[in-house]
Specification:
Elements (H helix, E strand, L loop, with lengths): L3 E6 L6 H13 L4 E4 L4 H4 L9 H12 L3 E5 L7 H6 L26 H18 L5 E5 L14 H15 L2 H8 L26 H27 L6 E2 L1 E2 L8 H5 L6 E3 L9 H15 L5 E5 L18 H11 L2 E6 L25 H16 L15 E4 L2 H7 L10 H13 L5 E4 L10 E4 L7 H12 L3 E5 L20 H7 L1 E6 L7 H4 L7 E4 L7 E4 L3 E5 L3 E6 L8 E7 L7 E5 L2 E2 L1 H14 L15 E6 L2 E6 L5 E2 L5 E2 L10 E2 L4 E5 L2
Parallel strand pairs: 1-2, 1-9, 2-3, 3-4, 4-5, 6-7, 7-8, 8-9, 10-11, 10-12, 12-13, 13-20
Antiparallel strand pairs: 14-17, 15-16, 15-18, 16-21, 18-19, 19-20, 22-23, 23-27, 24-26, 25-27
Length: about 675
């Protein structure tokens, strides 16, 4: 077991004489893993069917001689210009009918059989040549699938969509039923009549939109699987592809089953004060996608990126602090984009591990320091590498709910990810480690499961959530949950996912009543006003945001109500004991309480569920983030002021006693409590 350290290495951008210097610096910086050939297709295959591997042989041999392991990419993420020249039909088309051009990257249609065939040929040659190379540690398939082109509307995509629909529904009659085509005279007589949801006069069919989201995620996954099939036929080296955090177009629950190790690219904004807690949520997602197994932070920036309107550099020590946040939340790899900052091209102002200024720079000194520390922490006796993060609270995350809830023809505008973030911050601010789960998986390991805005809820998911509460778990259901089924047909009789889940919660939702300012339509947007809440689950005044509902407590205790207007006295927070000896409970929260109130509510729920809240430890919502992973506790001061640590044990980075240890801004302690 080790904690990998390194980044994307693109030696083809540099003269040969720089390569030896690179390896020397890598050894000095503690680099143990280099990602190679991500954007090298045009160099590897300069002309159709003509391959040049000599330079890559040299790169891998040089890295191996220097003791650097290789994460070898398949180079299929950016096709060379000659492919578009020979086969313009491989270029993607937008929903408005615009065919995208060469000159950027990722200029391919995921459904294009021509693109897939050329990609397969390249991968075959790479695997044939390098499957047995002694430096090979990991296969890196493509790169950031769907980052720029996640939906394509070309004729090849249309044909593939029809085939996908026929496989899903079996008959055009079943498609018409699922899509509700009786509305607006949309009935189809054959699959040949169906097109992707291209630009249209007004709202497009909601289920067609959802199916195209499903299809588009599946088509990207099919590209990945095609390359994996070639690799697995000749190599048993682990395979990954880099995810992108909370990336809406790809259902990572499906994707995670296909990788041997989860890896992620994450670029939180140093100028955004919410970036630290948001990054914590990203890390928890990556750990959860792999079922708790260690994962790899495949890309981050050593300092500034170059693609925001304002590109703030990371503060001194912030790269190290955020890297340790990833380690604390389960990462066994800390890598960057990229090794040497480019001198030309679109990302030349994106920071590199070796900056334009060379090694006499703050960034390089921090890179070198971090490498030495991770090598020290990788020692077997530390027990950090390979260890896991224990959690007994979870949030149910559902990509189909994300897709459906944010469609135009929805009850009101809701940013699904922001709702998840609010609940995650409330839980982590209490010092709790949080997992993400699917609503239909085994939930028995958790004392509390929160299902916020789980808009799409199948019968199986609904039954599983109800069974979890009935078996003794504390289920917390948030607003806009269980409104529609997998076909986006409304759950009739009071929303909230069908009769069984409504019975478990003891509530019925009659009507949505989201708060809206009178001038929102005139101004084209803006913040909806808060709604006042009252109840003993809150200390003093509290308000709800985003959403409100007309709720009837049919068999539940009302713990908080709405205060004003037509909703006055209507339940806002309810709880029902599920009965018997299980000790389970079903909570319903019909709005999104503001952060302080939500934290109070979560604290009460967790306490009643028997979750032990850490005492005396600051958490991610404050200045100091404290996370236990395996045998160590990692404390990170993300604030601008120093803090004194209140932990018993020894800091493995300094050898000092942890209790009373001073952590300066961006300071880190890795505490062994043995």
């Amino acid at each position: 077991m080790t904690i990998w350290y390194g980044g994307d290495y693109n030696p083809e951008q540099w003269p040969r004489e720089v390569w030896d210097e690179d390896v020397t610096l890598m050894r000095r910086g503690g680099i143990s893993l280099a990602t190679v050939a991500v954007f090298s297709w045009a160099r590897l295959e300069p002309r159709p069917g003509e391959y040049d591997f000599g330079w890559l042989d040299d790169v891998l041999d040089t890295l191996h001689a220097g003791g650097i392991r290789v994460d070898l990419a398949t180079a299929t993420a950016s096709p060379p210009p000659w492919l578009a020249k020979l086969h313009p039909e491989t270029l993607p088309v937008t929903e408005d009918g615009v065919r995208l051009a060469v000159g950027s990257r990722q200029q391919y249609c995921p459904s294009s059989p021509v693109y897939r065939e050329y990609a397969r040929r390249l991968v075959e040659r790479l695997v044939e040549r390098y499957a047995g190379h002694p430096a090979l540690e990991l296969w890196h398939v493509n790169n950031e699938y769907g980052c720029h082109v996640h939906h394509c509307y070309c004729d090849a995509s249309a044909a593939a969509f029809r085939g996908w629909l026929e496989a899903r529904y079996g008959s055009i009659e079943e498609l018409n039923r699922a899509w509700g085509t009786a509305f607006w005279s949309q009935r189809y007589d054959s699959f040949d009549e169906v097109d992707p949801p291209r630009a249209a006069p007004t709202f497009r069919n909601p289920t067609q939109l959802l199916d195209f989201d499903r299809f588009s995620s599946d088509e990207l996954l099919a590209c990945y699987r095609a390359e994996v099939e070639v690799i697995r036929a000749a190599s048993d080296v682990p395979i990954t592809t880099n995810f992108m955090g909370f990336f809406k177009p790809a259902d990572y629950w499906k994707w995670a089953k296909e990788v041997d190790v989860v890896s992620d690219d994450a670029y939180p904004d140093p100028a955004d004060p919410l970036s630290t807690p948001y990054a914590a949520m990203l890390r928890d997602l990556m750990r959860s996608l792999g079922g708790g197994a260690p994962w790899i932070l495949m890309e981050q920036a050593p300092s500034a990126v170059n693609w925001r309107e304002r590109n703030a550099p990371k503060a001194p020590g912030q790269m190290r602090a955020w890297s340790y946040q990833a380690v604390a939340r389960g990462a066994d790899g800390i890598l960057f984009f990229q090794w040497r900052q480019s001198a030309a091209g679109s990302e030349k102002f994106h920071s590199g591990m070796v900056p334009h200024g060379g090694t006499d720079t703050r960034v390089w000194r921090e890179i070198e320091e971090m490498g030495g520390e991770l090598a020290q922490l990788s020692r077997p006796e530390v027990g950090l590498a390979g260890s896991r993060v224990a959690s007994n609270v979870a949030i149910a995350l559902d990509w189909e709910s994300w897709w459906a809830l944010e469609q135009p023809a929805s009850p009101t505008a809701v940013a699904y990810q922001e709702v998840l973030f609010a609940w995650h911050v409330a839980l982590t601010s209490l010092g709790l480690a949080v997992d993400f789960v699917r609503a239909d998986q085994d939930l028995s390991a958790y004392r509390v499961v929160v299902a916020p805005a789980h808009f799409v809820l199948t019968d199986a998911q609904s039954a599983n959530l109800a069974a979890y509460a009935e078996a003794g778990g504390s289920l917390v259901v948030g607003f806009a949950t269980g409104v529609v089924d997998a076909d986006l047909h409304v759950h009739l009789g009071g929303y909230v996912g069908g009769e069984r889940l409504r019975g478990t919660l003891g509530v019925r939702v009659e009507e949505f009543a989201p708060p809206a300012a009178p001038d929102l339509r005139a101004t084209g947007g803006g913040e909806a006003p808060p709604v006042a809440l009252a109840g003993d689950v809150f200390d003093g005044d509290a308000v709800g945001t985003v959403w409100a509902e007309v709720v009837h407590a049919t068999d539940a205790e009302v713990l908080a109500t709405f205060v004003d207007g037509a909703l006055a006295g209507s339940p806002a927070v309810t709880r029902r004991t599920t009965g018997g000896d299980s000790g389970g409970s079903g909570w319903y929260v019909a709005t999104l309480p503001e952060p302080g109130a939500l934290t109070e509510l979560v604290g009460r729920i967790a306490t009643e569920a028997g979750v032990e809240l850490p005492s005396g430890l600051p958490a991610v919502g404050g200045t100091v983030e404290v996370v236990q992973r395996g045998p160590v506790v990692i404390a990170i001061n993300h604030g601008d002021e120093g803090a004194i640590l209140e932990l018993d044990g020894t800091d493995l980075l300094t050898g000092a006693e942890a209790r009373g240890l001073w952590l300066g801004p961006q300071g880190v302690a890795v505490v062994s409590r043995a």
